[in-house]
Amino acid sequence: MQTAFIQGMAIGGSLIMAVGAQNAFVLKQGIKRSHPLPIALLCSFIDALMITAGVLGLGHLITSMPMIKHLASFGGALFLLWYGANALRDSFKVKGMELEVAQGRDTLRKAILTTLGISLLNPHLYLDTVVLLGSISTQFDDDVRHWFGAGAILASFVWFFSLSFGARLLGPVFAKPVAWKVLDRFIWLTMWSIAAALLWPYAKMLLQ
After folding, report:
1. DSSP collapsed to 3 states, the chain
2. Residue 139 CB-density burial (10 A; 0-12 exposed, 13-18 middle, 19+ buried)
3. In this structure, are residues 100 and 32 in contact, taking their beta carbons and an 8 Å threshold?
4. Do the beta carbons of residue 151 and residue 61 sit within 8 Å?
5. Measured between alpha carbons, how far is 139 from 39 in angstroms, rounded to an integer?
6. 90-124, pLDDT tens digit by residue?
């Protein structure tokens, strides 16, 4: 039980902490102090749902239905291209921490919808949590497998709450407009790089 829980935390944490679209979004919203609690809760609950589904065996269903992956890849790529373009546009605006906090907060509805989009339209969410963690969990017996999932879920909650609320400690850095420019362009590159990775296998098929 203890071994499964610790391995779940370690493996789940290493997957979740990798720089990606979701983490870049949570970081920026945390710096802006824009609904950090709902965003952290929603990201954590989505991960918890997907990890639980993986441990229960849903990963086999996803891998057996390629159409689901194809639809998620195209939809996710389009969403990431759109979000990245907005970040690139924002990088040309002059802004500091006070202006961004006062005027840059999203409405709660927009923050929730964007969180859902950035999470659920990213195929890596399903591949990492449902398929990969689900597959790794099969090395444990049925009576302790849920402890592996519990460890991965705890790692997710700890990470997203730390990222969402810890980001505000960067406030003094983002009092300088150049810091926002760097962050926005980092987000733009992250979003477009992930979108390119999602579309590249299809581009190779067309080129062959």
Report:
1. CHHHHHHHHHHHHHHHCCCCHHHHHHHHHHHHCCCHHHHHHHHHHHHHHHHHHHHCCHHHHHHCCHHHHHHHHHHHHHHHHHHHHHHHHHCCCCCCHHHHHHHCCCCHHHHHHHHHHHHHCCHHHHHHHHHHHHHHHCCCCHHHHHHHHHHHHHHHHHHHHHHHHHHHHHCCHHHCHHHHHHHHHHHHHHHHHHHHHHHHHHHHHHHC
2. exposed
3. yes
4. no
5. 33
6. 888 765 554 455 445 678 999 999 999 888 887 77
Domain ranges of the chain: 2-207
Would you state the structure tokens that stand for residue 97, as one six-digit string?
């921490």
Q: Token pair of 101, please?
A: 């906090």
Mean pLDDT throughout 77-87? Answer: 86
